[in-house]
Amino acid sequence: EPRVALAATRVDGYTIINTHLSFVPGYNVKQLRALKRWAAELESQTGTIAIIMGDLNLPKNLPVVASQWKSLATQATYPSWGAKIQFDYILSKAAVKARALATVSTGVSDHLPLSVEITN
After folding, report:
1. What confidence tier does 103 reach under pLDDT thresholds 50, 70, 90?
2. How far is CA 62 from CA 22, 80, 112, 118, in A?
3. What Rg value do the Cα atoms of the chain yield, rounded?
4. 3-state DSSP helix/strand/coil % of the chain, to nearest 5
5. What is the pTM of this model?
6. pLDDT tens digit sequence for 26-53
């Protein structure tokens, strides 16, 4: 299942990568691993710290286990009308200090938005 990732580089010392991974079990882990390799290349090329965020379609903290990156926010994001599962993540390999921000339902998605404020 083709998917895309978009990177914004040199944003206050960070490279921000946003994506929506496949819902197909196993394939989404493969996509995350490829994304992690690309993030490492971008970090090297730009001298920034990479952050991967988006709907990773992986429950139970699997993005952290599969990537060995740190989650900057832990919060159930799906379904938006009674969230019980975290599918959306903000990940960093580097030690980044972040404060999770309050989540407000937008009414236009079946996911709740996940937001953090980088504090370092």
Report:
1. confident
2. 14, 20, 19, 23
3. 14
4. 20, 30, 50
5. 0.92
6. 999 999 999 999 999 999 999 999 999 9
Which positions ≥6 away from 14 have C-beta within 8 Å?
48, 49, 50, 51, 118
CB 20 within 8 A of CB 32: no
Report the C-alpha dihedral over residues 95, 101, 105, 108, rounded to 10 degrees: -50
Q: What pLDDT score does 107 carry?
A: 87
Cβ pair 14, 118 in contact under 8 A: yes
pLDDT of residue 68: 86
Q: For residue 29, report the phi and psi dihedrals to the nearest 5 degrees.
A: -65, -40
- Phi then psi for 108, rounded to 5 degrees? -115, 5
- 34 neighbors 52 (Cβ within 8 angstroms): no
Task: State the pLDDT at residue 1.
Answer: 60
Element (DSSP H or E) covering residue 59: none
